[in-house]
Structures are given as C-alpha cells and as structure tokens.
Amino acid sequence: MSAISVVNRLIPAVLVATALLAVLPSLLGDRSLLVVTVGDSVTYDADLGIRAALESAGPVVVDTRSIGGVGLLRPGIDDYLAEATAGDPDVVVVMLGGWDLGEIVADPRAYEIRLDVVADGLTGDGAHVVWLDMPPTPPDEGIENARQFANGLFADLARRNDDVTHIATGPLLGGEEGGFTLFRPGVDGEPVQVRKVRDGGDDGHLCPGGAALLGQAVLAVLTERFGVPEPSPRWWWGPWVGDARYDDPPGACRAVDDGSG
Fold first, then answer.
1. Disulfide-capable partner of 133 in 81, 82, 99, 154 (CB 3.0 to 4.6 Å)?
2. Spans of all domains in the chain
3. Torsion of CA 67, 206, 121, 223, to 10 degrees
4. Strand order in the sheet with 164-167
C-alpha cells in the first residue's frame, strides 16, 4: 500500500476525531451541575449572589429555595427540605441557625444529632453539602456568643462528615477581627456595603456586596470539587443587584460609609 493511500485512509479518521474533540465540551456540558440553596431570610439575600457566581461559570443551574423563618428545629422543616431537594441536586448549599439558637445553646448534643440526621438526608443520594455558617451579627442583637457556639457545631459537622464542606462566613463578611461590619472590601477589592441598615441601625441581612462574597466562596468549593470553571468577568455587578430584596426596607443597601467600619 502506497504512502498516499495510507494518508487518504487516515484523513477521514482524523477529521472525525477532530470533530469529536470540537463538540466534546458541549456534550459534557449537557449535564449541568444542579445546585439547590436552602436557608432563612439571610440566605434569601445571599441566594442571588450565589446564583450569579455559579451560573456565570458555566454548566451550573442554581435553584434558590431560601425563605424566612427556616430552622432545623422549626415545624415543617423536613417537608421543606424534601421538596427543595426533590430534583436530586448535586450540591445543596445551606445557611441557617438563627431560628434555632435558643435550642442550640440549651441542648447542643441534641442539635448535633439533628445536624447528623439532616446531613445524612441531604447527602443520601450523592449530593455534596456546602454549609455556610451564621454571619457576624449586629452587637445590639446580643447573640454573638450563641452564634459563635452554633458555628462551632456546623464546623464539627463537616469534620465528621466527608460529604459536607464548611465555610466560615466571619472572614468573608466581617471586619478585620471578624465581627459585624457594614462595609468591607468586595469581590474586586473595592469597599462595598455588605449588610443592610434598618430604622437607622445595623441589620443582619445582606446587600449585594455581601451576597457576592458568599457566592465567590461557594464557587471556590465547587471549582475544587467539581472542576467548575472560572466565572465571567464582573459577574458580581449584573442586573441581579437591583432586585427588590436589596431595597427592603427602602434604602437598606444605600448607607454611606463614614469610615467607622
């Protein structure tokens, strides 16, 4: 067989291989990573930042299910979690605890058992849980000690369960010492308002700048674990920042930084 004949036979095979390589990324992308978020009203504010970060990175779909009043010891929580995860998600992002603080402090061992039961239920079909702990709270609320105690239980959960990744939110949303602050550097390093104001005082809920910082942290976990690619440029400054939740109450995320932190 001549060399020309061999080459002619190889050309179609090479063309087919090249075509397959060209479409392979899109074929792999047909199976999007499904992420579900669950949590309370603070998580509700975080939801859009998490979605913006993850969905800008590629084949990820984020189903946001957070609502006010959610806690692991609150009535109806098991039905809520079952409905939220009925679509067999690959990842469940959790942030809650505020509604359970009294019971957590009163009987931490019982709450540890409850955490294990919930985590086992969320991961039973193969999902990975990303557990964001409670962000720093305004000093006037007087619950910082309880919050830090609860966060210790969330961190312990991840240490004993390989299917749970814990993210500490204090370094993400807090000031230099990890405590509550209205303003801090955002995703791009520029100062942003991360927490709301209400009736002239500090409020624990999130502004777009805080939501974006949490989204960036969740994306880092998914990049390491699932190979999620880099997000699109300036994903943290899209139409989502104008959502009505960030103007509830009116002007909540339009405070002026007076330099006091």
1. 154
2. 30-247
3. 130
4. 60-64, 33-39, 91-95, 128-132, 164-167
Token pair recorded at residue 170: 């204090």
Helix (H) or strand (E) holding 71: none
CA distances from 41 to 44, 133, 203, 218 (A): 5, 14, 12, 18
Could you read off the pLDDT of 3-24 as tens digits, one per residue? 333 323 433 333 333 332 233 2
- Percentage of residues in the chain having pLDDT higher than 70: 86
How far from chain centre, in Å, is Cα 32? 17
Amino acid sitting at position 3: A
Amino acid at 84: A
According to CATH, the superfamily of the domain at 30-247 is SGNH hydrolase (3.40.50.1110)
Average pLDDT over residues 81-85: 98
Q: Rounded to the nearest 10 degrees, what angle do helices 77-84 and 108-123 cross at?
A: 30
CA distance 147 to 54: 27
* In the predicted structure, residue 253 carries a pLDDT above the cut 70: yes
Banded model confidence at residue 30, pLDDT cuts 50, 70, 90: low
